[in-house]
Design a protein that fits this description.
Layout lengths: L4 E4 L1 H8 L3 H16 L9 E2 L8 E4 L4 E7 L4 E9 H4 L4
Parallel strand pairs: 1-5
Antiparallel strand pairs: 2-3, 3-4, 4-5
Length: about 90
Protein backbone atom coordinates (compact mmCIF):
# COMPACT_ATOMS: atom_id res chain seq x y z
CA UNK A 1 0.00 0.00 0.00
CA UNK A 2 1.28 3.45 -0.91
CA UNK A 3 1.78 5.70 2.16
CA UNK A 4 -0.54 8.64 2.73
CA UNK A 5 0.82 12.14 2.26
CA UNK A 6 0.50 14.01 5.57
CA UNK A 7 -0.39 17.68 5.32
CA UNK A 8 0.01 19.79 8.47
CA UNK A 9 -2.26 22.77 9.05
CA UNK A 10 -0.66 25.89 10.49
CA UNK A 11 -2.56 25.19 13.70
CA UNK A 12 -1.14 21.66 13.90
CA UNK A 13 2.40 22.99 13.41
CA UNK A 14 1.91 25.57 16.18
CA UNK A 15 0.59 22.88 18.51
CA UNK A 16 3.37 20.38 17.78
CA UNK A 17 5.95 23.10 18.47
CA UNK A 18 4.50 23.44 22.00
CA UNK A 19 4.84 19.72 22.81
CA UNK A 20 7.34 18.52 25.40
CA UNK A 21 10.39 16.93 23.73
CA UNK A 22 9.42 13.39 24.74
CA UNK A 23 5.90 13.77 23.35
CA UNK A 24 7.26 15.31 20.13
CA UNK A 25 9.48 12.24 19.67
CA UNK A 26 6.46 9.99 20.19
CA UNK A 27 4.47 12.07 17.70
CA UNK A 28 7.08 11.54 14.98
CA UNK A 29 6.74 7.76 15.37
CA UNK A 30 2.94 7.98 15.40
CA UNK A 31 2.93 10.07 12.22
CA UNK A 32 5.01 7.38 10.50
CA UNK A 33 2.39 4.82 11.51
CA UNK A 34 -0.43 7.09 10.40
CA UNK A 35 1.12 7.57 6.97
CA UNK A 36 1.49 3.84 6.40
CA UNK A 37 -1.60 2.52 8.20
CA UNK A 38 -4.18 4.90 9.75
CA UNK A 39 -5.90 1.90 11.35
CA UNK A 40 -2.77 0.59 13.09
CA UNK A 41 -3.75 -0.71 16.56
CA UNK A 42 -1.21 1.57 18.30
CA UNK A 43 -3.12 4.62 17.08
CA UNK A 44 -6.45 3.48 18.56
CA UNK A 45 -8.11 5.30 15.67
CA UNK A 46 -11.76 6.23 15.96
CA UNK A 47 -14.18 8.78 14.57
CA UNK A 48 -14.74 11.96 16.58
CA UNK A 49 -18.39 12.12 17.62
CA UNK A 50 -20.45 14.94 16.19
CA UNK A 51 -18.33 15.38 13.04
CA UNK A 52 -20.38 13.24 10.70
CA UNK A 53 -17.55 10.71 10.54
CA UNK A 54 -15.23 13.17 8.81
CA UNK A 55 -12.70 13.75 11.63
CA UNK A 56 -10.65 11.01 13.25
CA UNK A 57 -8.75 10.86 16.52
CA UNK A 58 -5.68 8.82 17.39
CA UNK A 59 -3.43 8.37 20.40
CA UNK A 60 0.09 9.77 20.63
CA UNK A 61 0.31 8.40 24.19
CA UNK A 62 -2.05 8.06 27.17
CA UNK A 63 -2.37 11.83 27.54
CA UNK A 64 -1.95 13.29 24.05
CA UNK A 65 -4.15 12.88 20.99
CA UNK A 66 -4.11 14.03 17.41
CA UNK A 67 -6.97 14.65 15.01
CA UNK A 68 -7.07 14.40 11.22
CA UNK A 69 -9.32 14.07 8.24
CA UNK A 70 -8.86 12.43 4.88
CA UNK A 71 -8.19 15.05 2.23
CA UNK A 72 -8.37 14.17 -1.42
CA UNK A 73 -6.89 10.97 -2.74
CA UNK A 74 -4.11 9.57 -0.58
CA UNK A 75 -3.79 12.60 1.69
CA UNK A 76 -4.39 13.16 5.39
CA UNK A 77 -4.90 16.66 6.77
CA UNK A 78 -3.48 16.88 10.30
CA UNK A 79 -5.71 19.19 12.34
CA UNK A 80 -4.61 19.21 15.99
CA UNK A 81 -2.34 17.60 18.55
CA UNK A 82 -2.78 18.33 22.26
CA UNK A 83 -3.92 16.96 25.59
CA UNK A 84 -6.95 14.71 25.19
CA UNK A 85 -9.79 17.16 25.90
CA UNK A 86 -8.09 20.20 24.34
CA UNK A 87 -7.37 18.22 21.19
CA UNK A 88 -11.05 17.66 20.54
CA UNK A 89 -11.81 21.40 20.55
CA UNK A 90 -12.28 22.73 17.06
CA UNK A 91 -9.07 24.37 15.81
Amino acid sequence: MKPFILIKTDFFIAQENKLPDQVFTQLIKILELLATNPKHPSLKTHKVEGTGGKIFEGHVNKQYRLTWMYFGSGKILLRNVDNHDACLDKP
